[in-house]
Every structure is written in C-alpha cells, then in structure tokens.
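Narrative summary of target 7.
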Amino acid sequence: MEAGDGSEAGQVLLLGSGEFEPWVGPTELALVQRAGGDRRVLILAAASAPEGEAVFRRWNEMGEAHYRGLGLSAEALPVRTREDAQETRWADSVRGASMVFFSGGNPGHLKRTLEGTPLLKAIFDMVARGGIYAGCSAGAMVAGEGFAGGRGPAAAAFGQGLGLVPGHVFGVHWDSPMMRPWRGLMARQVPESLHFVGIPEQTAVVRCARGWATVGRGVVEHRFRGIREEIRPGGLLPL
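Modeled conformation, tokenized:
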C-alpha cells in the first residue's frame, strides 16, 4: 500500500494538543482494548527532532511513562530522519503492535521523514488490519490528505498530509490564540472536495463507523463545500 492510497479500516485518534495527558488516557485504553495486535504502543516523536535531542527524548519519555501508567507496553522508536525510517527493523517492530502514536512538532519534517518508507507502509498495513493510528498536532495533520497551497506562517504547514484518512484535512490547536488570526485563511485554502476538521487544544476526534466522535473540552469545527458547522464536546460529526 502506498502512502497516498489511504485506508478506511482500523482506528484513528487525532488530538489538537495535549498528548500523553490524563484526559485522553481512557479513550486510548478503550481503543487499544478493541484493536488487534499485542497491546504494544509505539511512540514516534520524529516531528520534534528538528528541535533538538533534549526535546526529542522528552517526548519519548513522556509517552512511555503515560502508556505504562495505563498498563500498556510502550516503546519509543528512535526515528529522527528519513534514513532512520528506511531501516527495516523499525518497520518490523510495527508489525503486531496495537497502536502507533506520533507526537507534535514540524509536520513538514514528519512528512518528508515518512513518505515512501518501509516504516510508513508498515503503519498503513497495521491500520488496515485493525490497529490504531494516533497523532497529536503535527502527528494529526499528516494523517489527512495532502494538497498544494498554504500562504502565511501558520498556513505554510498545511497540506502536509500522507493520506491515511483520504478526503480530509486536519487543523490543530484550533482554539489557541496563535491560530485565531489564521483560521479563516487556512480553512478557505482547503479544496472544496475535501472535508476540513479543526481540532481544538485538549480535544480529540476518533474515527468510528458513523463518523468522527469528539473527546475532550473543545468545539470541533467542520467545513465542507462552503458549509461550516460546530461539534460540541461529546458530539458526533457524521460523514
């Protein structure tokens, strides 16, 4: 399966912010209990690698502590670069896992690191057999469909999707002061053929049979073909 093929099988959990925090733990645990695999969670903090080794290690350590606190086996993969993602041993480690979690950072770096690699193919295969793709911030953005465009400092990170969830584009930190000046511009740049989903901080969307269920404190924004709607905490976005 190529990166752009996408897959509607398996489970997807996307966070606007707040990875490895208590608010999302019960949702993650419930998803893992329903997933195939061996209940292992793999943590990939590759998006944070451009920020330096200390930041990269901190996200990995936070992730391992979080999942072990939920009673799950957790392992952080030392994937920082495209060369790392080409190593078959990391793709092999994904086989049999129940969930792969991508933490935040630079979505462009994350896409360049993963695109066309054995590691990404293994992740697509894991989702196709019922495993969970989970991501926060940059990790959520790359789950959507890629497209050309993006004007302005914040919008430049848009369109970096790898196509795990075809037909969708995801915005993150959607209620933060940093994002407010750019929200309208970014949403308008999404092609009308794609669903746009803006995920606030400490909020997540979970793909289910009926659409996207919302978890957390924020109001999720959905735009499609000129229509805008809001989904309150605990609501469902039917697609």
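The helical segments are 25-34, 53-69, 82-85, 88-94, 107-114, 118-128, 138-141, 183-189.
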